[in-house]
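Dear support,

We are seeing what looks like truncated structure output for some complexes. This example has four components. We would appreciate it if you could run it in full and send us the complete token output so we can diff it against ours.
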Amino acid sequence: MPADPDRPHGGRVLSKDRMEGFSDGVFGFAITLLVLDLAVRPPGTALQQVLHAWPFYLAYVISFLTIGGAWLAHTALTDRLARTDSLFLRLNLLVLLVVVFLPFPTRLIAEALHNASFERVYVTLYGLTLLAIRVLGAALDAYARREHLYSQKGEGEELQSTQRKFLPVVTGYVIAILVGLALPRLAVALYFGLAVYLVVPFRETARALFRHT
Amino acid sequence: MPADPDRPHGGRVLSKDRMEGFSDGVFGFAITLLVLDLAVRPPGTALQQVLHAWPFYLAYVISFLTIGGAWLAHTALTDRLARTDSLFLRLNLLVLLVVVFLPFPTRLIAEALHNASFERVYVTLYGLTLLAIRVLGAALDAYARREHLYSQKGEGEELQSTQRKFLPVVTGYVIAILVGLALPRLAVALYFGLAVYLVVPFRETARALFRHT
Amino acid sequence: MPADPDRPHGGRVLSKDRMEGFSDGVFGFAITLLVLDLAVRPPGTALQQVLHAWPFYLAYVISFLTIGGAWLAHTALTDRLARTDSLFLRLNLLVLLVVVFLPFPTRLIAEALHNASFERVYVTLYGLTLLAIRVLGAALDAYARREHLYSQKGEGEELQSTQRKFLPVVTGYVIAILVGLALPRLAVALYFGLAVYLVVPFRETARALFRHT
Amino acid sequence: MPADPDRPHGGRVLSKDRMEGFSDGVFGFAITLLVLDLAVRPPGTALQQVLHAWPFYLAYVISFLTIGGAWLAHTALTDRLARTDSLFLRLNLLVLLVVVFLPFPTRLIAEALHNASFERVYVTLYGLTLLAIRVLGAALDAYARREHLYSQKGEGEELQSTQRKFLPVVTGYVIAILVGLALPRLAVALYFGLAVYLVVPFRETARALFRHT
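Here is the complete output from our reference environment:
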């Protein structure tokens, strides 16, 4: 609950609880839709089939990591939020729209890797969606800073880590999208690398590993 | 948690937390169902197909904006609520019923734009659903005001903006439904315009744009 | 958050927040699954088809009212809960299992009304599921009373109304199930009547209507 | 809300509310996906068909109990959490990934019991998923203890019961997986026994039964 309902500089104050609850619901749905696709897929002929369908499972893991990473970044962002306003809520809806859209190109990428003719189009669409999630997330963060929506206690390590990783990741996506126009499968491998880079907290992991030794 | 459990004028007091949580879940589902339809749709033959299926993607965007707008209005409404009562909870269920129904006519409208023969029926059903969401939302607001369910701190800018836009939007829907009986595709364009009008916060946007210049 | 973490008479104290959040999620899913079936159903040939498929839409409305009613009763119950214990959480899972199962017999009943040969079996399965939701909900309430899980402030009007309606409704379900063995379509009409009886708050409605006249 | 935002030993403090909300959403989805499979399954020819499809319903009950049990254990764990950190949130995402994956092997096991040739592969995959849920859940608990994430008020009976049951259950899973390589159907029966063992709170049940006699 916000302390002062009407800030002098014009932005409206809304309870952020419902935005968080709604966002969690949509993130959870998006992740589950990925699994729904797994379940819908014809299981075919056991082990050798599962081995043959590896590109689909890789796309599944990339999308899971990407949505998981976007959720972590979103949590870190709203955690530091003192209030929201009308435009923030709408920007947030836009982020959710793209997140919940991701299972669709994920499905296409799996099909693309089977019918080689559409590989370039589908892999490019997939890369653009991944890029859009990252860029819109950063826009949400930039808007919150511009409108002074964050609380005084600072932005926290997780949010700063997301901000620090923004430029390398966006550069990586642009390179991967360009690479994908010629070599779609290499682009998928690059997306996987970028997803891992986004989610793994290198500093914290190093700290946790070396603290107890 | 309500401060005084039994108000003198007969309405019951219920914690509004669960109504909000349940409503957020259903809104989130409704939005995700739209994407599920996207994923179920046969992807066909890449780029030229995607270009050909534009009416489906437009209906998707309209429905997303409409559910997003209904969620924003719902948030603004419950944000100001001091308590709920039995009838309010049931009215709210009715709103959710129609919101979660929207993906169904959205799907029909996409099909309608392919088989021209059912265009009128399906586009009319779609328009009536959009209208019902708006009218039931306004009924919820009217009931809350009549039963004095709002807290003292007033209704807030977002809720007032929803109330101000009610008459123009309902008039717009009725006109679009009538237009749709003769020219279904024009009606879809009108629904898109109304959805944008509903969601864009003109005053806040103007304020945000001109404050920093 | 419970005030005293370990009550003397042996039951464990758990935060009830997560049980409510999880239950809301599952109730929301169950209601949405009903709509998913609507969307999956082949839409066929416009208006005359929609008119022909009326039994399906009736079953949809009955199930929606039943899940909505079960959610209202569940809310009223947990609203008065001071704490939960291990067995209560498991009983609650059982209630959710049956609630989330309801869309399945709903689908069967729609099919049953098309292929007359399975009508009796499917309508009976549907009735047994509706009965199970009501009986397990009452068991949850009885367990909470037996283990003194309710807070001091009493059970509230909504919960008492659910308790008052229990015997008539269960009697009604048993009669409808028996009737359904001979006349399945009459049973469906009875289920509709019982669903309306369960959800409509007669006292509150009368009070709201006559207060302002 | 955490009391002290920055602990001296380096771990970051994050609000645990959103982790709980997000986890509840994903658990709820996973359980609902099981039912979705029920609904997708062709209902065939009434009663004798339902009787013939018993292996599917058994797998459904096992998976429901397993996810329900994992949710109970997760609740007990987060209930005692004073704070979270970056790695804990990522470990939690990994647990959710496997939980939401379970409906997929559940579906395969149902198919396996029809086409005998893939029984071994599918039943083994199912067993490995059940094992992974349990092992990752225990890893989450171990990590929380190692990093002192639990609050002072202790771990509580439910969490201790989960810890006590860990070794017997994991041993049981390993035995069942090995048995399943030769006798898949026996393994399914063992998984059912282990699921019941995990969910039933023997001590509390005995206490509740004998207290009132």
